[in-house]
Please model this.
Amino acid sequence: DPELTKDVPKNQWFYTGMDCYIHCIESLQGTYLNAFSQSYGEKAFELCKQIFLEDTISEEEMQDKLMMASWHGGMSIAYSQVGVAHAMSYGLAFVLGTKHGIGNCIVFDHLEEFYPDGVKLFKEMKERHGIQLPQGICSNLSNDEMNTMIDVALGLAPLWENALGKNWQKTITKDKLKSLYSKM
Model:
């Protein structure tokens, strides 16, 4: 709702908008993609680029477009699924209590291997809006905490299958997730 977002801190506005953007990337590059999810995802993606990369729209128009991008992005994943960023961010949320939007941003910042073009554009958006993400949030985790985080992420099989296909377990192992989480 544009009325609710107009006064939120810039970081929170960005994290919320990036949740929408990440929905688009994960849906549009996923194996569950279909005509419905593609149509909604493409519209949300175009709106996100206007909102976060262009100088040609007013603040009010930006907020209206973010509302519609969020709706289209939500419809896109309703007909498909999210992917790597969401699966891993749920691990952060469970163990560290990391909020959804910022958690997705922290994870997505390290996912060039899976979404090279999407991450490149994300980094441009982050730079353009002066957003600094927390670093080292997983550096002091105990082995038990790291293993719990990994197990939570691995338990989200539909997200991994959407991202990487039916044989996702060949790519996503406990060691792979530990390596990725250790960068965050």
